Amino acid sequence: MTPSDLVSGPDLGAGYLHQLSRDTDGSTTTFTYHAQVGGQDANGPPKGSLEPFGFVHPPTACMFGGPRCFHRRFLLPFDETPRVRQTYNRNRFVLEAMLGQAHEGRAPAYEAGLREVVARLADPLARERIDWYLGGSAAAWALGSGLPPRDLDLGTSRAGVDRIAELLREYLIEPLAPTDWPPNRIVRGARAFVGSLQEGIRVEWAVPIDALEPPALDEWSGRPGVARLETARVGGAEIAVSRPEYALVRSATGGDTARTDRLAAFVRSRGVDAELLTTLLARTPVPEPQRVALRRAVGLA
Q: What is the pLDDT averaged over residues 230-250?
């Protein structure tokens, strides 16, 4: 392996000092985003941690980021350097807006962002017969929950991951690449911030790298027919969305009581999918008394 090569930086953005490095080993290059708390030099302090965006805070100092560094890593060929540099720059340019949403309660532009995503994806993916759908809290919102999503999660196939990255190319904040998504997922995926530099919403999509059989009814397996879906009308288009039980269980797992209560009421009003809810709850760390309470809240004995 060759020594680490600094591709860009130090650059400023949202209270952090940023660097982009690469390490090449044969035909594969590891590109790394570094972000160090920058203090006054970076117009800091920053509004908060980068961990909500998938960054890792290692226990030891990194070569380029110093002792208080966050990082994200991507495996790509060396000749992808210009594309990675472009996504790296957009990431630091929109970071102020993303941090405000994650740590200061600023509302993301979810309606405009979702309309833009649907306008760019719906027709091309339908023509090419590529499966995709809206998942998580955004799916529940599209079905009428009234709870604004904090980001947009898209489910799709392996072919869809690559095609969506092409269709949202100008908005990418991470390159399409094999990468790790904490806590324990190795995926081929990408992230985007759809909107302007000052206002927009994060969009994520990925499929697992491994070829293992997915868990029953898994929302993000990357395989058609695994997730349980419905349809909703968004921006004049009919799109597939995952059932709200997925958002409900994720909210309960995260401990957001107020949001969980509202999602439970919404699921109950529509009619709960008992098999789906039971299957999802069995895979979570939610304690049994809370599982019982949740089942009662949606109308199950």
A: 95
